[in-house]
Amino acid sequence: MEAQHHRLGGAEYHELLRGEGGPGAVALLGAGERSWRLLLLRALVDAADASQDAPVGPLPALSDGWQLLTRAWRTAPAEVERLLLYPAVGTWAAHALRRVRGTARGDSPLWVETGHLHAVAASAAALAGLDFRTAVPVRDGWAVLPGLGGAEVTHSGCRWAATEVVGAAGAVRVGPVRVAAEGWRGLRELRADGCTLLLDDIDPYRGLREPRTPDPLDSADRWESLFAEAWPLLVRDDPEVARAMGAGLRSVVPLPRSERYRPHSASSGDAFGAVVATEPDDAEQFACTLVHEFQHHKLGAFMHLFTLYEDGGKDRYYAPWRDDPRPLGGLLQGVYAFFGVTRFWRRRQGDLGRFEYALWREQTLIALRGIHGAERLTRMGSDLVDELTRCLASWQDEPVGSRAREAAAVAAADHRATWRAYHVRPQADAVADAADACGGARRFSVELPTAGDTIVPAALRRGLDTRAVLLRRSLADDASALRGLAVEAVEGACPEDLALVGGDHETARTRFTERILHGPDPEAWSGLGLALRAQGHPAADVLLRRPEFVMAVHAALGGDTDPVQLAAVFRH
Question: Which listed residue, of 8, 68, 244, 455, carries a Cα 20 to 30 Å from 27's Cα?
C-alpha cells in the first residue's frame, strides 16, 4: 500500500475549475484521495508508536493491526482499498491523529481512538475472507466494523471496553454475535440504477467530527424510497454529473428530519464521499443535497492536490447561505457548492424550483464578486473564481417567471440586509457626523459614507433564512396558506413576518416600526426595509443596502426618532 504521484489532465483540470467534473475527473480526484488516506494512516501509526501517551489498553499492539490490514490487502487489494477509502475511516484516522498529537480532545480514552485501527483491520480481514483473531474497541456497548455494521455486545457496564473478533472458514464473530446473523446490525443500502450508497447509522465516526454512539433507524423505508426517486432526477437532468456522483459518493449518514424547507447537511475533507443529512422533505430536496455536498467533496479533493489560497489572514466575507461571516477558505467552499446548487435548480421547474434558481444564481454571484481579487487567492484560486463568475453572470437574465423572481429578490435583500445589520459596524466618527447633520427637522440630504466599515461577528436571535422559509411556503402552498399558519410552525418567525410575506405590508410596516422604537432590532430594520420596498417607498433602498448605518444613527439620535423619516434623509 503506497501513495503515488498524481497528475490532473488539462481537460479535467478545467472541468473542475468550472465547477463541473465528469467521471474521469472524479476518478483522478479519487486516486489522490487514496494517497491522502494512506499517508494519513501511516502518519497515525507512526505518531502513536512514537508517543509515550498512547497506551493500547486491552487491545493488541497497533503494529498487529497494521500487519493484519496488510495481510488482508495482499489477499484482496481492491476490497481493502475500497474499505480504506470509506469516509468514516478517514474521519477516524484524522481525529485519532489529532488526539495523538494533542490538537483535539475527546471523552474516550486514547486507546479507544487509536485502537479503532483493529476494527478497520478486522473489516479488511473479513472482506478478504481471512482466518484471523483480534480485539476491537467497544464504545457505549457497541462494537463496530467499518463499512459492514455493528452489534451491541456484553460488557462490564463501562463505556469503554474491548471484545474479540474472530474470522474462521468465511464466518466472522464479533463478541457473541455472528456477522449477518441475529443481533448483527448491518449497514443498509440506498439503491438506484447507477448508484448504491450505504446508509450509515452505525459507525462511531460517521458524524464527520466527534465520535457518536450508533443510532440505528427503526426503518429506512422513507430514505430508500426518496433516494429511488431522487437519483433518476439527477440522471435525467445531467447524466454525466450523475455518473460522476455515482462513482464518488459512498454513504449517507441520516439525521432526524428538520423543519420544512430547512434541511441540514454536511461533509468533510477527511471523509470523501459521505453526506450527512437530515431526512429530506422530498426527492427533489434530496437530489439537491447530494449535489451540494458532492461539490464540497470535489473541491476538497482538488485542494488536497492544489493550493487555491494562502493560509492566515483575519478577513471575513459575506456568505449568503450562512448566518455568520466566513473566512476565505470557507467561502471558496461555499461558492463552489452553491454553484452546483444553482446549476441543479436551473433545470428544475415550478414556482419553487425557479425561485431557488433565481435566488442562488444572484447570491452566489454576489459572494464571488466579494472575493474577486482577494489578496490571499493564488493564481489558481483566482482562475476558479473567474470561471464560476463568468458562468453565473451569463445566467442572470434567464427568465424565471415574475412570481419566483420577486420572491427571490425579497429573500436575497432580506438576508443581505439582516446580515449587515448584525455583523457590520460603521465608523463611529461617521455615525456621529451623520447624527449631527440629521438633527432638528431632518429635512437635509445626508450622504452615506463609502468606507470605514468593519465586520464583527455577532450572536443572532434567529436564523437569517426565516423569511425565506415563509416565502418557500407561500410558493409551494399559496400565499393564502400563510394566513392560517401558526407562527410556531416556522422557528423564529413572528406575526409581522407573516404579514410581510402574506402581502399585508402596512401592518408589517407598523409593527416593525414599533419594534425599532423599543430598541436595537436588526430583523426589524430589514423587515421595515422590505415592507417599504413593497410599498414603493424611496427610503427602502437605503434600509436594505445600509441598514447598519441607519440603525447606528438612530441609536445616536435617540429611540423616539421616526425610522422611516430618518432613512429618507440618506442618499448614496
Answer: 68
With both helix axes pointing from N to C terminus, report the angle between 350-371 and 379-395 in degrees, rounded to the nearest 10: 140
CA atoms of 458 and 170, how far apart (whole Å): 58
Q: Per-residue DSSP letters for 543-556?
A: HHH-HHHHHHHHHH
Task: Tell me the pLDDT band of 2, cut-offs 50, 70 and 90.
Answer: low
- The separation between CA 344 and the C-alpha centre of its own chain, rounded to angstroms, equals 16
Instruction: Report the C-alpha dihedral over residues 429, 433, 435, 441, rounded to 10 degrees.
Output: 180
Q: Are 559 and 435 in contact (CB under 8 A)?
A: no
Residue 563, CB-side half-sphere exposure with 13 Å CA sphere: 33
Distance CA 102, CA 98 (A): 6
Residue 252 is classified by DSSP as E
Would you place residue 215 in the very low, low, confident or very high pLDDT band (cuts 50, 70, 90)?
very high
- Give the three cell numbers for residue 480: 393564502
* CA gap 55, 228 in Å, rounded: 46
Q: What is the mean pLDDT of residues 113-130?
A: 97
User: Which amino acid does the sequence have at 13?
Assistant: Y
Q: To the nearest whole number, what is the mean pLDDT of the chain?
A: 93
Please, which residues bridge with residue 377 across strands? 309
Strand bridging mode 265-266 / 424-425? unpaired
Query: Do 362 and 408 touch, CB atoms closer than 8 A?
Result: yes
- Which residues lie below 8 Å from residue 178, measured CB to CB, with a gap of 6+? 171, 172, 184
Phi, psi of 282 (to 5 degrees): -160, 180
CA dihedral 200, 214, 163, 45 (to 10 degrees): 60
Question: Which residue type does 439 have?
Answer: G
CA angle 80–141–146, rounded 5-degree value: 10
Helix (H, G, I), strand (E, B) or coil at 188: strand
The DSSP element (H or E) to which 402 belongs, if any, is: helix 402-423
| Three-state DSSP class for residue 355 | helix
The grid coordinates of residue 172 equal: 466472522
Which of 63-77, 151-165, 391-405 has the lowest average pLDDT? Answer: 151-165
C-alpha cell at 361: 444564481
pLDDT single digits (tens) 27-63: 999 999 999 999 999 899 888 888 765 677 899 999 9
**Residues with Cβ within 8 Å of residue 498, at least 6 apart in sequence:** 470, 482, 483, 485, 487
Q: How far apart are CA 84 and CA 560, in angstroms?
A: 65
pLDDT at residue 572 is higher than 80 = no
Going from the C-alpha of 207 to that of each of 76, 204, 276, the distances in angstroms are 28, 7, 7
Between helix 10-17 and helix 379-395 the angle, nearest 10°, is 60
End-to-end CA distance of the chain: 63
- Cβ contacts of residue 130 below 8 Å, gap of 6+? 68, 71, 72, 75, 167
User: What is the DSSP-derived secondary structure letter of residue 127?
Assistant: H
Residue 449, pLDDT score: 86
Q: Round to whole Å and give the CA distance between 284 and 281.
A: 8
Grid coordinates belonging to 338:
452553491
Tens digit of pLDDT for each residue in 318-327? 999 999 999 9
Q: Cell 424510497 appears where?
A: 225
| pLDDT tens, position by position, 168-191 | 999 999 999 999 999 999 999 999
